[in-house]
Write a sequence for this structure.
């Protein structure tokens, strides 16, 4: 079956191909009545402009970009990103938008993709993850004028719209719970220290431990199971080893549980473990992991919704809309399970 073209629409409407292009791309040059007639004919013929033609016409691509500064293997082992992407897709599909996923090695490469996507009109907007305290990607996106939403705290978003949950509140809840069980030596195996949300967690952890008179130590990692296991082995080998460990993701918590068992420690009698971001795997372990739980899929839905609003606003006439506001999503809350208990003495 022959794919309909602009020439087919022009022939049936009795107008030039230029007039059809103006009508399809929302540009001036045709009367409202002619525009409506052309759009109706295009819809009836099943015409869909290809992305290259839309780019040449200056039309916004119905694609959202997501560049992740993580190794590709991350998607295979870390449930957070798959649940986030699932939520993004669920919302984007309601508007017939596609998600363009790109794994990158570092920020410079990510900024390069943003510039290429912008120059080629490949995407209509982007989502930014793992935002840092002073993030060069934010200033680059503002310079380009490419609609963007930061999945992270407003303090690091540099004026871009952001969606975030208060990790400080969640950290306080976890430490207060462990302290109430009687733990007085708590260690935290954190993620990458330069990330904005890691800094918020670190500050909250230090503050609540000082307030409760709890001995505290934070050791940064790269989020991997290997590094998490290495740090756990070092912490548990100390003379004054902690009686409770909080991990910044579930993968490191699972690795930590394995190390503890290898060392002959019983969880939770000898060591309590808390994982950040619950996942189905946390339920299947023995013992099942106590975790900080939130609806990551819904987080993705809300992030996509915020970006689509930012893209709609950027396409409006100047002065007709306001920048979408920041969204404060529900923070993670503690779900106690079998990996936490009062410390043995």
């Amino acid at each position: 079956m022959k794919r309909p073209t602009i020439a087919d629409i022009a022939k049936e409407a009795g107008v030039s191909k230029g007039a059809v292009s103006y009508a399809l791309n929302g540009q001036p040059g045709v009367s409202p009545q002619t525009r409506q007639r052309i759009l109706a004919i295009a819809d009836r013929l099943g015409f869909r402009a290809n992305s290259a033609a839309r780019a040449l016409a200056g039309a916004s691509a119905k694609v959202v970009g997501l560049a992740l500064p993580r190794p590709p293997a991350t998607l295979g082992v870390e449930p957070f990103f798959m649940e986030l992407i699932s939520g993004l897709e669920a919302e984007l599909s309601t508007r017939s938008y596609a998600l363009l996923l790109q794994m990158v090695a570092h920020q410079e490469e990510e900024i390069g993709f943003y510039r290429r996507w912008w120059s080629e009109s490949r995407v209509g907007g982007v989502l930014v993850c793992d935002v840092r305290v002073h993030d060069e990607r934010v200033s680059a996106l503002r310079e380009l004028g490419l609609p963007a939403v930061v999945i992270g705290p407003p303090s690091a978003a540099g004026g871009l719209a952001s969606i975030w949950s208060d990790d400080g509140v969640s950290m306080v809840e976890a430490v207060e719970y462990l302290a109430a069980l009687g733990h007085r030596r708590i260690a935290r195996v954190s993620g990458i220290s330069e990330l904005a949300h890691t800094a918020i967690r670190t500050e909250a952890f230090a503050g609540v431990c000082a307030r409760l008179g709890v001995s505290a130590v934070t050791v940064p990692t790269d989020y991997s199971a290997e590094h998490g296991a290495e740090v756990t082995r070092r912490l548990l080998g100390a003379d004054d080893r902690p009686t409770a460990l909080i991990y910044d993701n579930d993968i490191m918590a699972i690795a930590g549980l394995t190390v503890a068992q290898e060392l002959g420690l019983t969880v939770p009698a000898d060591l309590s473990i808390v994982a950040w971001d619950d996942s189905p795997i946390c339920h299947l372990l023995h013992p099942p992991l106590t975790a900080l739980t939130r609806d990551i899929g819904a987080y993705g839905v809300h992030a996509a919704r915020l970006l689509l609003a930012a893209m709609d606003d950027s396409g409006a006439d100047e002065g007709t809309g306001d920048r979408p506001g920041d969204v404060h999503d529900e923070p993670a809350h503690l779900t106690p399970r079998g990996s936490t208990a009062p410390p043995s003495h």
The first helix runs from residue 6 to 13. The chain is about 45% helix and 15% strand.
